TrEMBL record:
Entry keywords, A to Z: Fatty acid biosynthesis, Fatty acid metabolism, Isomerase, Lipid biosynthesis, Lipid metabolism, Membrane, Prostaglandin biosynthesis, Prostaglandin metabolism, Transmembrane, Transmembrane helix
Descriptive protein name: Prostaglandin E synthase 2
UniProt EC number: 5.3.99.3
A Pfam family assignment: GST_N_3
Membrane topology: Single-pass membrane protein
Localization per Swiss-Prot or TrEMBL: Endomembrane system
Pathway(s) per entry: Lipid metabolism; prostaglandin biosynthesis
Principal EC category: isomerase
Species: Ziziphus jujuba (Chinese jujube)
Cellular compartments per GO CC: endomembrane system; mitochondrion
Family indicated by similarity: Belongs to the GST superfamily.
Segments forming domain GST N-terminal: 105-181
Residues passing through the membrane, by range: none
Amino acid sequence: MRRVAILASSSSAILSRTLATAQGGATSTPAVHSRLLQVALYGSGAGEGFSHARRRRPIFGSFTGSGRNSSVGVAGALISVAAVSATLSQEVHAKEPPPPELVPKDVILYQYEACPFCNKVKAFLDYYDVPYKVVEVNPLSKKEIKWSDYKKVPILMVDGEQLVDSSAIIDQLDAKIHSKKVAKSSSEDDDEETKWRKWVDNHLVHVLSPNIYRNTSEALESFDYITSNGNFSFTEKLTVKYAGAAAMYFVSKKLKKKYNITDERAALYESAETWVDALNGREFLGGSKPNLADLAVYGVLRPIRYLKSGRDMVENTRIGEWYRRMENAVGESARIKA
Ligand SMILES: N[C@@H](CCC(=O)N[C@@H](CS)C(=O)NCC(=O)O)C(=O)O
């Protein structure tokens, strides 16, 4: 335990020194470093590419379209060919756009591209086809959200109103576009959907970081994506990839301890299997259509799906079919190109 803590703090120190050197020797604040580590924790994956124009997706777009780690582009294309026939024989699930008068006019998401909480919100916006703009926040300076008292992402501006915290954002948006009151949940008699949404926030997200930074090559794969897609300056990009990957490799060991994870891959596979068991033979937890729990699980897994950990998860568990159905149902991103 103590050894891990020492390693984690020394990796953070290495990262700090490297960044300070890269910044011309200027002393960086501990807050800046801790912010880098926090974002790195979740800055892993293939979200949905950086600036997708809004467009409709072909029937097999789920295999070729939104958000893929470029390093798996060729592999993804090969998989698509093999998978098209399977897809064609599946029922195609559609998005559920709300009545036009209930669609917010101006939606802006402040995010880190690979943050699981941000991707949860994006999965909701994409599925309900609510157009949104994205502001990529620099995790070190956070200058894009200086105006807000809330210092985390996601922040969603909806027609001038600031919404924060992914699950609360989704509750409020859901109420808006379905013209209903925000549902109150009491922990004692949670319905199935609420129970699994909480499972995502309290369990699933904690399994992700130890997996994507499991060893040096996976940590580098993750940081390659983060630095290619995040909002970093040129100098930051150069240093963050290697220093960040090294630091997160050690930090993820600490997280394993914190969340009582002994074998991170086993924990990931077990979570995937637990989710498939929860489906209990249904296409989605919501039945024939995804509900908010389906969208939450899909959202947080989306950044890791095409990294090594996500590929392993699909190969070694039964989650792949449900994931493909979700890709189909959520479809193209509703993101508006800036
Ligand atoms: N409970 C919040 C958690 C949000 C969160 O922790 N976001 C991370 C990024 S993944 C963050 O902004 N961390 C603070 C930082 O980067 O300084 C939610 O669901 O939105």
